[in-house]
Specification:
By secondary structure, the protein is mainly α. About 80% of the residues lie in helices and about 0% in strands.
Length: about 325
């Protein structure tokens, strides 16, 4: 296990070094800080998405689900579309990155907490009922967003389109610091739940029988997932299939269900995928596409493969 982790960590460092120093121009004092800021944003968001997806799959005991199934990505797109539709693309909430980041994060977190509170007020409602309602709400958010996007002026839609895909090219340094502080604090808080992850992967009944405070643990983990996904999505945009791709690759590569090795492996693979994708976007595709398009394309194919694999099992 340690050898495999060292291989992943070494690969991650090699790709980061290649991204930062490959074809570095003579005016490196301008280019180097910008590249380092991109890499730092990738590490923060990639790590948050990988960790959130891993504990979400452990909590649901399903390896083809991601946190986007409860509608957080769709809510983000709905919020951005609503601002442009009602106030215009040059309005203060759309232009001011601090306000946009704060409101986006707040609405996504509020939605996740309210959804959980409303659905778990009554006895007998389980986690899968929450996922079903979240999936329906996400579909509704996506339909409303599409409806408003059809009515938006084409010029404003072009501006909105830039927020529909994840991008690391124009990450605000101050927002990056704020997102880093939030993610680090949430990660430190989540340590108390890591000791339950191996047991929870066995299923609800086994976890309860082995003494895990299941309801309280699920509530705390859902809050952690909501914050991590909300902050990372509000910072760079949605990357729907990233978590699904990297977590399943971590399971396959590590050949273990121990979260002590799956967590660092998932984070390393996530950073490798994002930095490698950004390298392809800049060096091969010359910015004609975005890294989220590449990740979603590969992740979508892998998702279909997982569905076919499960169908044969």
């Amino acid at each position: 296990m340690k050898v495999k982790l060292m291989i992943l960590f070494g690969t991650m460092i090699a790709i980061i070094i290649a991204f930062v120093f490959l074809d570095l121009p003579h005016n490196w004092d301008y280019a180097l800080p910008r590249r380092l800021k991109k890499v730092f944003a990738i590490i923060i968001t990639g790590g948050a998405i990988a960790y959130a997806t891993l504990i979400f799959q452990t909590m649901t005991n399903n390896r083809i689900l991601t946190p986007s199934v409860i509608g957080l990505d769709s809510l983000y797109l709905l919020f951005q579309t609503f601002i442009v539709f009602v106030f215009g693309s040059m309005s203060f909430p759309a232009v001011n990155k601090y306000m946009n980041f704060g409101l986006s994060t707040m609405f996504m977190m509020l939605f996740a907490v309210v959804l959980y509170r409303l659905l778990f007020q009554r006895e007998g409602r389980n986690l899968f009922f929450l996922l079903l309602v979240g999936l329906v709400m996400g579909t509704m958010f996506g339909s409303i967003s599409t409806f408003m996007q059809v009515l938006i002026d084409p010029n404003e839609f072009q501006i909105l389109q830039g927020k529909m895909f994840a991008s690391f090219n124009n990450v605000n340094a101050d927002l990056l610091i704020l997102a880093t502080v939030i993610i680090v604090l949430v990660s430190l808080y989540s340590i108390r739940y890591n000791k339950y992850l191996d047991v929870m992967s066995l299923g609800k009944e086994h976890a309860v029988n082995l003494g895990v405070p299941y309801a309280r643990t699920v509530q705390g983990m859902l809050l952690i997932i909501a914050i991590l996904i909300s902050v990372s999505t509000a910072l760079v945009g949605p990357v729907t299939f990233l978590g699904l791709l990297v977590v399943n690759l971590a399971y396959h590569f590590m050949g273990s269900y121990r979260h002590a090795v799956l967590i660092p492996a998932s984070i390393c693979i996530s950073v490798i995928a994002l930095v490698g994708g950004q390298l392809l976007v800049e060096r091969v595709f010359t910015f004609s596409t975005t890294v989220s398009v590449l990740i979603n394309f590969v992740g979508g194919l892998y998702f279909i493969y997982l569905l076919l694999k499960e169908a044969k099992a």
